[in-house]
Amino acid sequence: MEIPGLINYWAVVVLMMAGLYTVVARGNLVKKIIGLNVFQISVFVLYITMGKITGGTAPILAEGIRTYSNPLPHVLILTAIVVGVATTALGLALVVRIQEAYGTIEEDELAEREAEEGA
Amino acid sequence: MRLVEHLPALLVVVPLMAAPVCFVMRRPVAAWGISLLVSWSCLAMAVGLLALVMQGGPISYLLGGWAAPWGIEYRVDALDAFVLVIVAAIGAIVALAAKRSVEHEIPEERRYLFYAMFLLCLCGLLGMAITGDAFNLFVFLEISSLSTYVLVGLGRDRRALTAAFRYLVIGTIGATFYVIGIGLAYMMTGTLNMADLAVRLPDVAHTTTVQAALAFLVIGIGIKMAAFPLHLWLPNAYAYAPSISTAFLAGTATKVSVYVFLRVVLGMFGGTGLLKAAAVPDLLMVIALIGMFVGSAVAIWQADLKRSFAYSSVAQIGYILFGVSLLSTTGLAAGIVHLFNHALMKTAIFLALTAVFMRTGSVRIDALAGIGRRMPLTMVAFLVAGLSLIGVPLTVGFVSKWYLIQAAVEAGVWPAAVLVLLSSLLAVVYVWRVVEVAWFHKATEATMKVTEAPLTVVVPTWVLCAAVVWFGLDATGTMAVARTAASFLSQGIAP
Amino acid sequence: MNETTLVLLAILVPLIGVVPIVLADRLPNLREAFSLITAGLLFAVVFSLWRLVDQGARPEVVVGEMLPGLPIAFSVEPLGMLFALIASFLWIVTTIYAIGYMRGHHEKHQTRFYAFFAVAIASTMGIALAGNMLTLFIFYEALTISTFPLVTHAGTEQAKRAGRLYLGLLLGTSIVFQLLAIIATWIIAGTLTFADGGILAGKASDTVVAVLFAIYVFGIGKIAIMPFHRWLPAAMVAPTPVSALLHAVAVVKAGVFTVVKVTVYVFGVDLLVGIDGAVWLQWLAAFTIIAASIVALTKDNLKARLAYSTISQLSYVVLATAVLAPQSVMGAALHIAAHAFGKITLFFAAGAIMVASHKTEVSQLAGIGRRMPWTMTAFAIGALSMIGVPPTAGFVSKWYILQGALDAGQIVAVATVVISTLLNAGYFLPIVYAAFFRKETADGHHHEHGEAPWPSVLALVVTATGTVILFLAPGAMLELAGAVIGRS
After folding, report:
1. Does the interface predicted TM-score (ipTM) exceed 0.90?
2. Nearest residue to B213 via CA among B183, B235, B240, B234
């Protein structure tokens, strides 16, 4: 097993699962957003890792250097980070509005209040 | 002629640029005017593109002049152009009806936001359809998704907020799954161009990385298109969003996601042989059939009509996926034509409900008692679209059903054909219960005072109804496009 | 006018007629005048079409392609001509009757009634003249939907329940079975155009053909064959003119007409004979005939009794078709005509009784023949036609059915016809007897009354006369029916 070489990928898996678990298991909406962030960050790590080549340097043409890392995934992930920030911002804005409208951001309490309304 | 060459880029850039303009203007009427102008010019461009593609074959547009597969390529073939027309047409129709409904449902200080988000969403959806780059698709997916969350959250019921939040969480998970899948595929092939991916993936199909990529993509897109059982975000989002948002989203958002499924899962992985090996078609068929029954059955029991027809959408996605799951040209064509047909009829239904909501302040079924006489134009339009959902001849619903059944019988899956037909009987129930209430129940005191909805809402609804009948009477045109698109897709699928 | 125009007019005239009918909403006299004019025009159109067909013309019209390779098309052949003639002629009579009935009964929403009636007739014409199975199916569904508001006309809870059953059974069977069968036919045969000798011969295995035939039969819910018959009694909640024209003539005849069409022009008689594909249908039809007759015996409500009688009579046509002998197929065509005139007379009479005396039950009718002599005489003639006694049309059709069955040696069919004749007599003759020869019972239910309004009486006299004329001068009817089996 080349665990040391794949350590980044193991980190990705752990982060991914931790993030998803938080989204599903936590009732607090802010914690859900945090979980979502962790989940997304695992993907950022995945992309960044796949672009890295052992011994490669930053992709700037220079004398005597033959091995470069692939810059494309890194650039892609810049976009993804922007998207992630936007999602987080929107999510948090919604949480604020929910707090204003319901007076709580706990999922079970929200469900209770909605059930009363629906009846 | 230079402008024509840039049509693919313009189609996306125009709404993208117009959205911030709406945001800056802040005046709702001006914002509405801009979105009307933009959406109709998008429609004109999309129709132009479709005509070009049907005549001269696929169009390739290199963004910034960078050659594919390194640069981002916009690629328009029959399927893309067809989806573009669907999205742009629904957008244009909805923009027409939006003004009065937005005035009714959204407080004045937030109205300009609706139009800005509407245009962003339009941009995202069009972009998803037009791009030939898998990662670029993700960006457009998120543009449309983020604006969709806002469109849902603008609803005046506070439950719209929780619905939007829930949609945001689930939608983001779906989109992230998509990125993971694309990332894994990129790891093995080193390309993000979809056409290039389709060429390179078969060579590395045996690796677990590519297989995992397929799994992530199927789940991710499955969430976005609200395929049963990944549909849980949809009913509340549709039910509590402003009526006009629902009308727009119901006709476009899930449709484009289905398109992404076709493009990515079938288009990219079709040649790998992985689909059959992983029993994707069988799985899809089972899911589609269950979705049809569960969606329709749940729709019958909903008191809130927007919710009811949201569940109906889950069922209708099932019909599309059923056609797709057969992987034959007829099946794919049936699915693709149902994309278009369902967009027409479901938007018509939600526009009619928008009109009802404007006049009665509710879309609970008991609020519609005796409304057939009070709002005859709206409710007859509802009836026409409803008959189409059932699949009555002379409506587009019949065309879809005909080809779905034909595809099923050709593929030799008779029991599935019977199940599809049986499930459409459930549509009779959930449509007809509304008809009964609207025409045969005594008007209550509240409904006695109701008058016909304003023409700006009724006319767009009827335009869609006319299309429902027109393309039901003469389906040769739509079927020709659908067949072209389907045969291209099915050629790429390994036997 | 050329043939093409006539064919299109046959469908368009009643549809266009809807416009003035709706516009004259507030002027009942004018509205009903428009209805009558439309009906008259339609009959004129169909009649001139018949003159052409009589001279051997077989007009074909392709309206346009609906699905790739599948056009909406019309073609006129003898059986459809016969059906169209009957329906359009009886529409005139029914309109006259309806004027008396609807006013006498103070029905609401009369404009809606006349408008949807016209749409239903247009659909019927579409079925009669359809040139392929797709076109037929389109109008078949249109007929179901356009008659729904007529069935639920009263708007009561009972009417709504009946409407649900009506829509559920008719739409359900047609969507699930008929559509499936049509699409399968399209895949197997590559065409849906009706052709002499069928389109399926030699293209599929015997088993497939047999199964397909069964799916067709169950898909045509309008024939009210058991177990899909419940919609017909339920539909009796509709105003009597609807029960009379639509649920004794147009709708149900559209069903049996479709069965004959499918048997003769889609499968071809020879194909089915070769594989004994219709034997089971004989048994099912025989069962329906007997069972429905027995149920009819137990019904005290007059319209319900007539409804079950219709179920049984429809299965005569199905039975005769399923015998697959030339004579009996001709008998089936004849029975479509004969039963139409007889049954519409019976319904007219039932409605007239309802309007004049407010009586709906068989047991209340003692002595009514003296108050309403015209009505009850017509009723008697209709009843005799149902039983199949000369001098009525029912005798002619039964004769051919029996002859065909005997020639083909189909004992089941012969026995069924004989037994059911007795049963028919059993549930109709007592009504006639009581009406003329028993005294009114004194249950406090009476009021002084005479005949129903004159338009209603006129209508039922016309149809009763028609029933007799079809016996005395069956020439045209025999000619058309004979042409169905290729006998000129």
Report:
1. yes
2. B183
